[in-house]
């Protein structure tokens, strides 16, 4: 397992041995040298027969792209949490009848193309359908990685126009794909246009670049974000094996640029479905100014059921975190309801009994350690 002090350059696989440090730390070089085919993984890790078959049969369903940086974090052989998230698997081809291509009905709630308006005060603006790494558990496979669905500048402008004409929208999430696949100039333009809208309280940026391409978070990008501060950045670390010096530097740049940084972990079977892994992830993130914000139950998206865990797993993890790490390290465990129902938060049940007494109802709670305590409630007015 890596930590925040080791550079991915030091862990680079034999395929990239001749690469210089300046190439490695250039996000353009990383982007141009992404691994896209089974052959590209020669000298990186040994693919299994199943993984090779998944490349052959599934690449047109959901593309493969892995930055050399992210590939460097992979174990050279055998299973590992990075590999599971980035290398295709034959299970992706098993489509089940209850799965949905658009599980959150984002397309149904589009008043203009490329903008989802589902909650009264919030809107999602899709500015790019590209990502440095195509995560195999992506919930937006229906359009992410598909060049024919990429947002044009005219579409983004129409989305911004809708936001400016809809005063009940107070919070906009710039999403995709990954918005940091855009150039600094284009991002600057979009952020500037949004900042002109007086009724917006919150501008959020959803990006996995601090994990998959941390080199993208340059000093220039940080200066740009500072000009539009405060920007709420939500990133997506799923496992402590994703920690390295480059991601620590990226988080530091974001934090010192005045960004409020949070993490949205997706609960994934065989990757992070153990309390001790989530604890270690959250402690590492907190040390670097990134607040664990959500644990997201994996959606009912097509071809990702092999990643899903029972709801009970998330509740067990929450039960373990509560009391063992300060509240700032305890995210909300949420299910995004299919069909656009929105997010609901799930909590372990801490009430074990209720009984009446002469003073009012006595509620018996259990704490994180299983000890029980009585609390006398007051009667409702
Ligand atoms: S970075 Fe986000 S949008 Fe892109 S493939 Fe991964 S989960 Fe999907």
Radius of gyration: 22 Å
Q: Largest sheet, order of strands side by side?
A: 1-2-3-4-5-6-7-8-9
Helical percentage: 25-40%
The main sheet comes to:
9 strands, mixed
The tally of beta strands, per DSSP, is: 12
The H-level CATH homologous superfamily of the largest domain, spelled out, is: Aldolase class I
Secondary structure layout plus pairing:
Layout: H1 21-24, H2 27-32, H3 49-58, H4 68-72, H5 81-86, E1 115-116, E2 122-126, H6 153-164, E3 171-175, H7 184-195, E4 202-206, H8 209-212, H9 219-227, E5 232-235, H10 245-256, E6 260-266, H11 275-287, E7 290-296, H12 311-321, E8 332-337, E9 342-345, E10 351-357, E11 360-366, E12 372-376
Parallel strand pairs: 2-3, 3-4, 4-5, 5-6, 6-7, 7-8
Antiparallel strand pairs: 1-2, 8-9, 10-11, 11-12
Helix pairs in contact: 11-12
Iron/sulfur cluster is lined by residues 131, 134-135, 138, 140, 144, 176-178, 208.
């Amino acid at each position: 397992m890596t930590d925040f002090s080791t550079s991915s350059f030091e862990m680079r696989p034999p395929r990239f041995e001749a690469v210089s440090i300046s190439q490695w730390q250039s996000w353009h070089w990383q982007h141009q040298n992404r691994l896209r085919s089974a052959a590209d993984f020669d000298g990186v890790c040994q693919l299994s027969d199943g993984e090779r078959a998944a490349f052959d049969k599934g690449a047109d369903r959901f593309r493969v792209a892995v930055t050399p940086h992210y590939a460097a974090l992979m174990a050279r052989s055998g299973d590992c949490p990075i590999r599971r998230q980035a290398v295709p698997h034959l299970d992706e081809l098993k489509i089940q009848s209850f799965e949905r291509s658009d599980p959150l009905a984002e397309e149904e709630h589009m008043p203009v193309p490329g903008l989802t308006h589902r909650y009264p005060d919030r809107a999602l603006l899709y500015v790019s359908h590209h990502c440095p790494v195509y995560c195999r558990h992506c919930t937006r496979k229906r359009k992410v990685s598909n060049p024919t669905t990429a947002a044009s500048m005219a579409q983004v402008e129409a989305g911004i126009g809708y936001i400016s004409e809809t005063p009940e929208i107070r919070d906009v999430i710039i999403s995709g794909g990954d918005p940091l696949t855009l150039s600094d100039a284009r991002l600057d333009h979009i952020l500037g246009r949004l900042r002109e809208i007086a009724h917006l309280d919150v501008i959020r940026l959803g990006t996995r670049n601090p994990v998959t391409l941390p080199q993208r978070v340059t000093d220039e990008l940080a200066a740009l974000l500072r000009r539009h501060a405060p920007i709420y950045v939500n990133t997506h670390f799923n496992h402590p094996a994703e920690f390295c010096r480059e991601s620590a530097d990226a988080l530091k740049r974001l934090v010192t640029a005045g960004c409020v940084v949070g993490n949205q972990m997706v609960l994934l079977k065989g990757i992070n479905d153990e309390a001790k892994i989530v604890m270690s992830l959250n402690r590492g993130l907190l040390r670097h100014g990134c607040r664990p914000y959500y644990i997201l139950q994996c959606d009912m998206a097509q071809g990702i059921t092999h990643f899903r865990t029972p709801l009970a797993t998330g509740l067990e993890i929450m039960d373990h975190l509560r009391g063992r790490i300060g509240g700032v390290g305890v995210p909300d465990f949420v299910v995004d309801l299919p069909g656009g129902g929105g997010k609901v938060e799930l909590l372990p049940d801490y009430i074990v009994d209720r009984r009446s007494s002469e003073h009012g109802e006595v509620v018996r709670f259990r704490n994180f350690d299983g000890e029980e305590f009585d609390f006398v409630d007051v009667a409702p007015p």
